[in-house]
Amino acid sequence: MQLIVRYTHADPATFRTAFDADAEDRGRNGLTLLQLWREDDGHSWALFQIGNPKAARDYLEGAAAVFATQAGVTATDAHFVETV
After folding, report:
1. Which domain of life is it from (predicted)?
2. pTM above 0.70, yes or no
Protein backbone atom coordinates (compact mmCIF):
# COMPACT_ATOMS: atom_id res chain seq x y z
CA MET A 1 0.00 0.00 0.00
CA GLN A 2 1.17 3.51 -0.76
CA LEU A 3 0.09 6.97 0.28
CA ILE A 4 0.19 9.97 -2.06
CA VAL A 5 -0.07 13.39 -0.41
CA ARG A 6 -0.32 16.80 -2.05
CA TYR A 7 0.72 19.58 0.33
CA THR A 8 -0.18 23.23 -0.13
CA HIS A 9 2.35 25.43 1.65
CA ALA A 10 3.48 29.03 1.89
CA ASP A 11 7.24 28.60 1.36
CA PRO A 12 9.10 25.66 -0.22
CA ALA A 13 12.23 26.10 1.93
CA THR A 14 10.25 26.17 5.19
CA PHE A 15 8.24 23.17 4.04
CA ARG A 16 11.34 21.14 3.14
CA THR A 17 13.12 21.90 6.42
CA ALA A 18 10.09 20.80 8.46
CA PHE A 19 9.46 17.81 6.19
CA ASP A 20 13.01 16.55 6.69
CA ALA A 21 12.79 17.11 10.46
CA ASP A 22 9.57 15.04 10.56
CA ALA A 23 11.13 11.95 8.91
CA GLU A 24 11.72 10.08 12.17
CA ASP A 25 8.15 10.62 13.36
CA ARG A 26 6.74 9.45 10.01
CA GLY A 27 8.97 6.39 10.15
CA ARG A 28 7.74 5.46 13.63
CA ASN A 29 4.23 5.60 12.19
CA GLY A 30 4.79 3.24 9.30
CA LEU A 31 5.50 5.74 6.50
CA THR A 32 8.62 5.39 4.35
CA LEU A 33 9.27 8.18 1.84
CA LEU A 34 9.73 6.90 -1.70
CA GLN A 35 9.68 10.20 -3.58
CA LEU A 36 9.15 13.92 -2.96
CA TRP A 37 8.30 16.35 -5.76
CA ARG A 38 7.81 20.10 -5.88
CA GLU A 39 4.98 21.11 -8.20
CA ASP A 40 5.58 24.85 -7.83
CA ASP A 41 6.49 27.22 -5.00
CA GLY A 42 3.20 26.51 -3.23
CA HIS A 43 2.74 22.75 -3.67
CA SER A 44 4.68 19.57 -3.01
CA TRP A 45 3.79 15.91 -3.49
CA ALA A 46 5.05 12.95 -1.47
CA LEU A 47 4.79 9.24 -2.17
CA PHE A 48 5.13 6.94 0.84
CA GLN A 49 5.27 3.18 1.26
CA ILE A 50 2.95 2.18 4.10
CA GLY A 51 4.17 -0.49 6.50
CA ASN A 52 1.35 -0.08 9.02
CA PRO A 53 -1.90 1.38 7.61
CA LYS A 54 -3.51 1.98 11.02
CA ALA A 55 -0.45 3.82 12.37
CA ALA A 56 -0.23 5.86 9.15
CA ARG A 57 -3.88 6.89 9.39
CA ASP A 58 -3.47 7.74 13.07
CA TYR A 59 -0.43 9.89 12.20
CA LEU A 60 -2.38 11.78 9.53
CA GLU A 61 -5.24 12.40 11.95
CA GLY A 62 -2.98 13.55 14.81
CA ALA A 63 0.77 14.11 14.78
CA ALA A 64 0.81 15.36 11.18
CA ALA A 65 -0.90 18.54 12.42
CA VAL A 66 2.27 19.48 14.32
CA PHE A 67 4.34 19.00 11.15
CA ALA A 68 1.81 21.01 9.12
CA THR A 69 2.05 23.95 11.52
CA GLN A 70 5.85 23.92 11.46
CA ALA A 71 5.94 23.54 7.67
CA GLY A 72 3.42 26.27 6.87
CA VAL A 73 1.07 23.72 5.31
CA THR A 74 -2.38 25.19 4.68
CA ALA A 75 -3.98 22.12 3.06
CA THR A 76 -3.31 18.46 2.34
CA ASP A 77 -4.92 15.97 0.02
CA ALA A 78 -4.01 12.39 1.00
CA HIS A 79 -4.87 9.17 -0.84
CA PHE A 80 -4.10 5.60 0.19
CA VAL A 81 -3.64 3.53 -2.97
CA GLU A 82 -2.83 -0.09 -3.83
CA THR A 83 -1.48 -1.68 -6.99
CA VAL A 84 -4.08 -3.97 -8.56
Report:
1. Bacteria
2. yes
